[in-house]
Amino acid sequence: MLALIAKHSSLFLLSGAILGFSFPSMSSALLPALPYILFMLMLFTLIGIDQKALVASLAKPDAWRYALVHAALTTLIVSGIAISLDASPPLLIALVAVCATGSLFATPAIVRSVGFNPLAAMAFTIASTLMMPIVLFVNLTLFSDDSFSLDMKEYVVRLLIFIFGPMLLSYLIRKHAPQEKLSRVHGKIAQFTIVLVFSFPFGLSGQYRWLWEEDRSFALITMAIAFMICVSFFLIGLLVFWRKGKEAAFVAAITSGNRNVLLTYSVAGVFLGPLYLPLIGALQLPTYIQPFVVKFFVNRSRNTIKQPVA
């Protein structure tokens, strides 16, 4: 059963977003537990990674160049467009918070499912996650109104818990636990973590449903914005890294398009304004449609290359 779920994980994740929208009360009830589920999933993901290979990838300039594109460049482009269109302050804050967000920890698995090497995606994910606190702080400071005040003590505590906590714990576990036993235990636990991943689209998409019930016209605009964000992030990653080769470009594009918006919410919470949760709820649909679209274009590209020249 678990193997079947893992094989069709993209479909189940998309279904989770649809079910969360359909049952908003159940979705909202799950929301408070999501940061703790995220903590455990980040920990299990990091435990299973070859940390020497990851550190070697992080030592390369490409990882940090990608992180700047992922957060800083997208912030400049998205905020510039939003300001030119006279976006409201709450919407602008929500948009730049999404821009600052690091990549999903599930991104390497998505990259692997498309047929690419996931190590670069993992390095990109870690680099963008480590850069997120800085860019998020700058974005909240620059784009908030005069009444904004970030509680730095709470912000730092949440950073230590939800970002550096899983990284430190995974390092200590891998350093001190017997590797053979760790691999065996991790292999068993990893089979069940795929089920927990489905809680994210389910627990977040219900927040968009409340906006849908309150103001359907603005909800449709928010969904359109969510699709444009995903497409824009994907294209920015693709274009900036295109000269590195097709595989590197697609890995950057997929990583840029998948954002760990729950981690940003876990770190900054109420400082993100009233439209952040509805926006990231809307983002669940385009985010989990993306793997299907990427697979289609990648497979089409490969088939075109394989066709003999007449």
From TrEMBL:
InterPro entries in UniProt: Na+/solute_symporter_sf (IPR038770)
Keywords attached to this Swiss-Prot or TrEMBL record, sorted alphabetically, are: Membrane, Transmembrane, Transmembrane helix
Question: What's the superkingdom here?
Answer: Bacteria
Mind telling me which residue stretches traverse the membrane in this protein? 39-59, 66-85, 91-111, 123-143, 155-173, 185-206, 218-242, 262-283
Q: Spell out the protein name for this chain.
A: Bile acid:Na+ symporter, BASS family
